[in-house]
Amino acid sequence: MEAEDLKREDLPHTGRKALITGITGQDGSYLTEFLLSKGYEVHGLIRRASTFNTGRIDHIYVDPHVSDARLFLHYGDLADSGQLTHLIYNIRPDEVYHLGAQSHVRVSFDMPEFSGNITGLGTTRLLEAIRRSGINTRFYQASSSEMFGASAPPQNEKTPFYPRSPYAAAKVYAYWMTVNYREGYNMFACNGILFNHESPRRGETFVTRKITRAVAGIIAGKQDKLYLGNLEARRDWGFAPEYVVCQWLMLQQDKPADYAIGTGESHSVRDFVELAFRYAGIEIGWEGEGVDEKGIVRSLSPDLRNMTSVNVGDVILEIDPKYFRPTEVEYLLADTSKAREMLGWEPKVTFKELVRIMVESDMELAGVNLSFEGKKVLEEKGINWTKNVQTVG
Fold first, then answer.
1. Residue 50 is among the residues annotated as catalytic for this protein
2. What are phi and psi of 16, to 5 degrees?
3. Span between the terminal Cα atoms of the chain, in Å
């Protein structure tokens, strides 16, 4: 095969530089692992804090004084355009992955101005820093399926946006700014419209991780109940490490474009709850309606009975109205036809496997020793790029 016939993704990656905002988050940590495994030099933007906030990347961080170090962290903030311009100009990255944001939907209702400033205007600051620097780079914008909001499923790149939260509205603004810089300044800029993607590294206040942590905590006797809001909201949930591969693939194409990424399957919060408890050995039943609905233990597996103080009949889930959103997104379901055709990508980890992986990880963290198959699933599907347990949990 002649060199000119090779795709960018097949060319050697050694020597390429990437800048990642949100490097300490779920996606940022997995993307960092992935890029390092391909020979990249990775630079990450982190905020100054009085407490350590690099837990998700500590296992791959190397002192920058070491001669072969390829991961470098820089202080900055998406509200500081001067520092963003300084970093872009001095690092001169080949690829920029903009993952940083105020990313919690429910919190955006409490902090709408801050969410707009960081999630929306932060993208503009970064795009403008790239433009002013004059460097030739490729830009990835982490867009969100929340932008579709009340639009009917399935949703794809041509579905109209109907945002139902300050977070989603800010993401819509950032999406169109990315398109405008692509068309106005001939910038290689892509939007990845990612549907919900989860993992053991998901933040503890996001509903999936909240559920799996509660399962482990209840069984270990460290938590009495799980409190949730809308159980009927439906989401297209996938496994986060697979989605960062798509982020990379988008920037390896000949032409910039926007892609919707998901599994093509949708499940309710109730489905997730039932499956998570089932994997841990608890069958949960339901009594009551609306805010009075409760989740009750119907049965325990034989292996679990001698390991927990949980009993049949215990109430382990209640509804708390404070978790309801003022405006809800009821049903998200991805149509990923374009990504499958153009990127050659499709998900390997199923919804059931995702739930199993997350439950297993949180059970281990809680000190509960049960036998699961989650890690074996990832090994079989070749997702553990760094061969490090931290890629799983």
1. no
2. -70, 145
3. 39
